[in-house]
Each structure stands twice: as structure tokens, then as C-alpha cells.
Amino acid sequence: MKKAQNYVTGQWQKGTGDGVPMFDAVTGEVIALSDTTGLDFAEILQYGRDKGETLRKMTFQERGNMLKKLALYLVKRKDAFYELSYRTGATKIDSWIDIEGGFGNLFANASLRKLFPNQSYHVEGDPIDLSRGGRFMAHHIMVPKKGVAIHINAFNFPVWGMLEKCAVNWMAGVPAIVKPATNTAFLTEAVVKEIIASNILPEGALQLITGSARSILDTVQSQDVVTFTGSASTGRLLKSHSQIINESVPFNMEADSLNSSILGEDAIPGTPEFNIFIKEVRKEMTVKAGQKCTAIRRVIVPEKLVEDVQIALGSALDKVTIGDPRLKEVRMGSLVSKDQVDEVRERVEEISKTAHIVYGSLDKVNVIGADAKKGAFISPILLREDHPFTNHAVHEKEAFGPVSTIMPYKNLDEAITLAQMGKGSLVSSITTNDDNIAKDYVVNAASHHGRILVLNRESAKESTGHGSPLPSLTHGGPGRAGGGEEMGGMRGIKHYLQRTAIQGSPTTLTEITGIYQANAKYKEAEQHPFKYHWEDIQPGMSLKTHKRTFTDTDIINFANLTWDHFYAHTDITSLDGSIFEKRTAHGYFIISAAAGLFVYPNKGPVSANYGLEECRFLRPLYHNDTVYVRLTCKQKVDRDVAGAEHPSGIVKWFVEVFDADDELVAIATILTMVQKKQETFVE
Ligand code: NDP
């Protein structure tokens, strides 16, 4: 019998034991044996930490480009993954969520490179001035942790589960060790085989353990990060591992979640919202055969609409064909294993001690194209709990399959309380066309949820759905949902970076952060800064301009040119009682005049004005006031537009406008597009 392999310490390795069978969820056949006997987890973890140096030294741009390349490479090979995915019981759509959803995470994280500096560490937030004289300040930097990310994953998303997490730690510069659930590790293995064969990742960036790893946490260290997705009981066991506690290892947990979906009181039968709600609940019950951490478990509806919802959901579920997930007409495949069928049955039996089953049966399922006895098939089960305030099983027992329970509420406060009785969920949704109801629900229920979707006739058309966590949004929930947080764009990446406050002089912090800090020493440019190409410009490079005196005519002319006739510029008889003493220059005139002073007019590497940020006018400037400008390179932001005809980067320039007494009167950051050296210019 074929054995799944583990990719550890730079090689594919088979276990030395007998192995545990991994079953085809549809036919019951054994696909391969999972075997991790003989793996030395201490060595595997240390290997990752040591080899991580390469990733840590790469810049965010390089890491992002690596992810994009990997995603493109995997997309080309997706067909083989779909074939294997059917064997987990997943339909084509289910597999798309897992496989291409996983690749989507690589792409989305790759795009985040543009939000980070072009270096191996991040500079976070705004500078903090700590002194009166401007010579002592602080900033926060975030550097890659010098450990490994250990991902202990659930069976339901063997590809997405790996990639949504790895995309993030790779972007941060941290290597990963992935331990998928044994049941479906054969699919994860197939994807990792391609990843390793691609040679796109540096060696050590990814190790794979395709089976049991009971002692994997025994040697975790303080620089490592552990993530867990699975059952609450295993999660709690691992979170309280002595090594996790002793070494203060961050432990991100995503466990059971009894997600709710609320039908607004306005969404009566006949409204688009009623139909949207029924469709969404059916979808969430049956996609992935309900084996989704974000699936709708609790269907909370106005008391007077319970019957309508029950009937409408029943007929919607009637249309769900169950069977061999390869068949086009099949809408719902099987659960992942026979064990999982037993587990779901047990949970439903617990819930139905008080609730009653109003749709489906635990004993009977109609299946097409497969043998119902051999595969892990189960019918969708809809329950109804009429007393959800007194009977708590529905808020506590997660049947991880196509199972949901309808329950009534009398008013929105009750609906909110019921949602909260789940004691913390990954996601909740409300379907209503009344934005007051939506606001009331969202603001009051948010404390207990990681994400809330509001559906109505407008949003439903383009909604990504109740069950879809998105790479740019936080995924995780408080309490029962584990209290963790994954993805969420830049936020997710920061979980693998150490945030450190750095204190020192503005000049020192300019060097450390790569961003010019106000009051730092200027590096006088040897020629006009606009004459330099991208590569030769450095933060701090500075130019002091000649001076200019604003005249009364300048101000009048600017008013006429722009049609900005605000009284302070045009009517000196109205200045009494205002903050202005004399005819005042327009703020935009100050900035325009500043540009007139600092711009180098000849054709050169600066190809365009790209915009303006953080502009402030610190005091009014009057006619006869004289100004000069300091133009200082603040920051360089690289752009890697593939195939660009004129490769360029963005340079942010700090513009300080001073008056004749050297007092700062205005500041702005202007952005220019500066060409890289491939271009030649005629001076
Ligand atoms: P488990 O919690 O048993 O397993 C999750 C992961 O943890 C698997 O990779 C498993 O590996 C691993 N694991 C289990 N015990 C240990 C240990 N002592 N040390 C190290 N790793 C360990 O969940 P299941 O996958 O079996 O699913 C069971 C239930 O969990 C489901 O029925 C469902 O209720 C819930 N669940 C919730 C999810 C969510 O996101 N909310 C997702 C999936 C499941 P191995 O497979 O090798 O045992």
C-alpha cells in the first residue's frame, strides 16, 4: 500500500511504522497510509528556524513576488488537485473553495507587498515625538520572528487551510511547518509535492507532516508561532501545553463556532430578502456538506415567520442532490469520513433531545452515483428549537455537517441575545432591507463575532457570502470560536512579526527606518535631487531653495486664475474679527509656489507628479512675506509593474516651507515618479 510522504529537513521521508489508512470518502477505499513514525520533531523545528534566515533577509517585495510566482505555478497544475479533492467527498464547487481559494490567498497576500517598505522589516504607524527640542523620538518597527510557524490544521480544507496560513507567514519572512489532519493529508501532500518541485520557495520555507504529530509542540520556542484549527477540545489541550505556556508561544486557535444567521422582521415572504435568506441558509448547510467552520448552524427568525422559513427551507433542501461529487447534478457530496458521520449523528442526537428534526433523517439518505453504505453520506438535517432561551444544546453542540436549527425571536434584542448565546462566533449574518435594523444588530452583536455580513437586495448580487472568509478581512472569533485572528490583510502578517519601539534621535531613526524623520540632519544633495535616478536617491537627501516674496498681485492673480475668491485673499475690508491680519496667500498658492521653488525644470529622471499627502498650513502667509523651501527625500516606495516600459519608483519628498525668520509655515509630502537607471536622458 502506498505511503504518504513527509517533507522534512530538506527531503521527502516515509514513516517507519505500519501507517494509518486514509480513506476515500466516497467509495471507502484506502487511498494511502499516513505514517509519521520516526520523525524527529525537535530536529524539524530547528531546521526550519535555521533555514528561515533566507526568508527573513528577503524584502517584502521579494516575498510578495515569490508568492505570486508560486500561485501562478500552482494554478497551472490545479486539475490534478481537483481529482484528488473528489476523494475527500468534495464537489467541484467545494474543491474550488479549497483549491483556488487557497491560491487566491497567495495572490492576495502577494499584493500586500506594496503596503510594506522595500526592506526585510516593517515600519509601523506614525513617528512619536518625545521631546520639546525635537531631538528625541520613537517609532515602531516590526521584524520577522526568528522561529517557525507551526500550523495544525483541520480536515475540511486541506489546501486552503495550508495556504491561507502559509501565505501570511511567508510574507512576514517566517518558514512554516504544516501538519494537516490525517484524513485529507493526501491532498495537501500532492500540493506540497508541486510546491517543492517548483523550487520557488527557499529551502526550509515549508515542511510537511502528513499525519499524527502528538509531540510536535514539545520543543516549541518563544520565537515560534502555533496556529490550530479543529475541535475545541484538542485546541484547549494544545493551548495549555506546558511548552506553550513556559515559552510564551503565541497560539492562534480557531475552534467550534455556532454561527448564526438572522432574518430581519421586515423580510417577510414575498420580499427579495426572504428569498435571499433561504438561498443563503441552504447554501451554507450544503456547501462542503456543512463541514465549514463558518457554516450557519443557528437560523434565528421572527416568531411569526418560523413556519414560512421551515417550509421554504424544506423545499429548497429538496432540490439538493446528494451523491458522487464528480457528477455535475450532485449539489452535495459526502462527509470526510464514516467517523465524521458518526460524530455528526451523535451531535444531532444531543441537540434533538429538546429540538426536533423537521427535515431530513439520520437513518436515510438518497444518493446518486455512489454506494450510500460505503461512502460517508448523510442527509441535510434541519431542526427546530422552539425554546432557545431555556434549551441550550443548540448554542453549545456543533454538528459539523449539513445541520442547522431554526429558532424564533420576538424582537431584535432577543435575536441579538440568541446570537450571543453562541458565546463567540466566527461569523453572523443578518438579512434585512432596513438599515436601522442592520445597524442595531451589527453594533450590538459585534462584540461576539469576528465578522458580520449584512444581506439585502442591493448587496446580495455581489456578496461573497456568509461562509467565505476573505484574505483581506479578519477571520477568527472570540470565545467558543477560539479567540484567534487570521488573515485580515496586513494585520495577519503582523502576527509573525515582532513589534519593537525604537527610541533615539531623528537622525538615527531616519537610518533605522529608511524614512526621513522631521528634525533629522539633512544630507545636502550635490546636485538637484530631481537629477538623480531612483537608485541614487536616499532618504535625507535634501535641497535648500532660493527665496521668493509674495506680493499683493501674486495673491490676486492666483485668485483670478483659480476662481478661489475666499474673502481672506480678495477682500481686505472683511478681515476684522477673523484670524487674518492682511491679505492672505491661498494655501494652494503656498504649495504651488513651493513647487515653483523646488522643481528642477529640465527633462530628467522625474517623470511625473504623483500626488500629495499630509499637507498642513501652520500659519497664514501675507503679502510681502518671504519664503524658501527645504525639499528632502522622505521615503522611497518601489514599484514592480511587470513589463513596464519605463521602470520607475515613487519617491516621497518632505517639503518644508520656511519664512524669512526660518520659522516653519507649511509642510507637505509630495510624491514623484522617478525613473530607474535603464532609461537614458539628454540633459
Ligand atoms: P481535531 O481537533 O481532532 O484535529 C484537528 C487537528 O489537530 C488535526 O490536524 C489533528 O491531527 C490535530 N491533533 C489532534 N490531536 C492532537 C495532538 N494531541 N497533538 C497535535 N495535534 C493534534 O479535529 P478533527 O479534525 O478530528 O475534527 C473534529 C471536530 O472538530 C469536528 O467534528 C468539528 O466539530 C470540529 N472542527 C472545527 C473546525 C473549525 O474550524 N471550527 C474545523 C474542523 C473541525 P490528526 O488528524 O492527525 O489527529
UniProtKB/TrEMBL annotation:
Domain of life: Bacteria
Domain MaoC-like: 539-639
Residue ranges, annotated region (Disordered): 458-489
Domain Aldehyde dehydrogenase: 12-499
Biased composition regions of type Gly residues, renumbered to the chain: 476-489
Keywords for the protein's UniProt record, in alphabetical order: Oxidoreductase
Name listed for the protein in its UniProt record: Phenylacetic acid degradation bifunctional protein PaaZ
